[in-house]
Every structure is written in structure tokens, then in C-alpha cells.
Amino acid sequence: MQLSELTWPDIQSLPRKTPIVFPIAALEQHGHHMPLFTDSLLLGEVIRRISEPLKDEILFAPLQWLGNSEHHLDFPGTMSAGPRTYLDLLRDVAENFLYHGFDRVVFLNGHGGNIVPSAQATYELRQKHREWENLLILSSTYWEMGTPTLDSLVQTQMGHAGEWETSMMLALRPDLVKDYQSCETIPFGNSFNPGNRAWVMKDRTNIGHIGSPEQATQEKGEHLFETFSEGTISFLKRVAAWDGETWDA
After folding, report:
1. 198, 18 Cβ separation under 8 angstroms
2. 3-241: CATH superfamily
């Protein structure tokens, strides 16, 4: 079900245990070879692929393209909501449905900078509504929904505008990918692990990508889309099937 296509009586008639999915992404730099809208395009394709098999179980809100991209602001064209502003925005969009008694909310994320604020938003919402016993509020990121198994993949994690995202863009919109074969690998590094170091993108790269975009192929991109879409469907089916009581699901 698509929220944008329904009337308010349609929403009123839904069971209050219907999961509400808020897709959240970004508009930010993706190196010399990828468009600013990459995160939103890729998450939008995941949503397109999962919407049909879940059309009777899940309500999908429109994709929210503005994300928390402060660490990319050194690169022109990036647009960002500040971390606190963004966190409050996520809380508010969820509250719109909590107000009407819906008790299952999922932020489905497609941008690394949204991971921390979306997780924090879920904790703040749960603490505010602590007396609501069957309330389920989740944040998840689509590329954590499955493990790619294609032997030809070089990267073992997402990165930024690297092999994974470039491959997915080649599978989705190859017309928007520029001269990726001439890119050079920017290593992930392991700065101060296991500590969590604060950083902005120019601490790591002046080009704007992290990973190995020159290793990208359409075949890899299709494999990644299939893997992450299947994993997301499985995850959301667990949300829909939750009994409203148990911790495990």
C-alpha cells in the first residue's frame, strides 16, 4: 500500500498493527562519477521491488530525500538537515501515525549518515511512549538486510560511491554514471578501531568516494538489488507477523 495513493478513510480503516515504513535517504555528493541523488534512487528501487509482494501487509510512506549529510557539505550540491533537526523530523513523522494508534513503525534507511539519528529517534520515541506495551519502533538500513554472495565482489561493505553503489547504479541508471572505470580505490582504512572516530568526508578523501568504483558491473548491481530486496521483504514480514508481546521475533 502506498500512503500517497490513499484517502484518509482508507488509512482510518487499516488495522492498527499495520507496519508503517518510512523510507529515508539523502541528496549528497557521490564522487566524480555518480549523481547527487544516488542514495534516494537506490533506496527507491529497493522500495519498488518490495512494494508489490508486500502490498497487502505494509503501508509505505513516500521516500524522504533530505537526510543528515553534514559530513559531505564540503562538496557543492550536497543538501543536509542538521543532526538534531533531522532527528526531530523523524520523530515527528512517526508521531503522526502513533497519534492515531498505529503501533509498528519502521525507518528504512538508504544513507550512512542517517543511521545514528534514526536509531536515536526510535529510542526517544520508545522512551516517550514507555507505557505503550505493544509498540514496535525500528530503524534499519537496506544494505544490512542481506549478505551478498557473488564471488567477484571486491568490497565486503557498502562504502560510499564505491563498488556496491556504482554497480547498483549501473543496473538501475547507467546513463547517470560517468567514467567510473578511471576511478582509483580509496581504502576503507581502520582508523583507531575499535574506537569510533568522528570524521568529515575530506578527512578520508578529496574525491568523494570510498571503496572501489572501478570494480563495478551491472551484474554485481543486480545481485546486490536482489539480495537486499529479498532480505528486506523477509525483515518486514517479521514485523508484520510479530505477536505484539515477545521480545524475540
Report:
1. no
2. Creatininase (3.40.50.10310)
Alpha-carbon separation of residue 202 from 15, 19, 127, 158, 186 (angstroms): 47, 38, 36, 18, 12
Q: Which three cell numbers stand for residue 170?
A: 549501473
Q: Where do we find the cell 509505505?
A: 60
β-strand partners of 186:
211
The answer, yes or no, to whether the previous bond of 194 is cis (omega within 30 of 0) is yes
Cell of 172: 538501475
Please answer whether residues 19 and 57 qualify as being in contact, where contact means their C-beta atoms are separated by less than 8 angstroms: yes
> pLDDT tens track of the chain, all 249 residues?
999 999 999 999 999 999 999 999 999 999 999 999 999 999 999 999 999 999 999 999 999 999 999 999 999 999 999 999 999 999 999 999 999 999 999 999 999 999 999 999 999 999 999 999 999 999 999 999 999 999 999 999 999 999 999 999 999 999 999 999 999 999 999 889 899 899 999 999 999 999 999 999 999 999 999 999 999 999 999 999 999 989 987
Residue 87: Cβ-neighbour burial (10 angstroms; 0-12, 13-18, 19+): buried
What residue segments make up the domains of the chain, in order of their start? 3-241
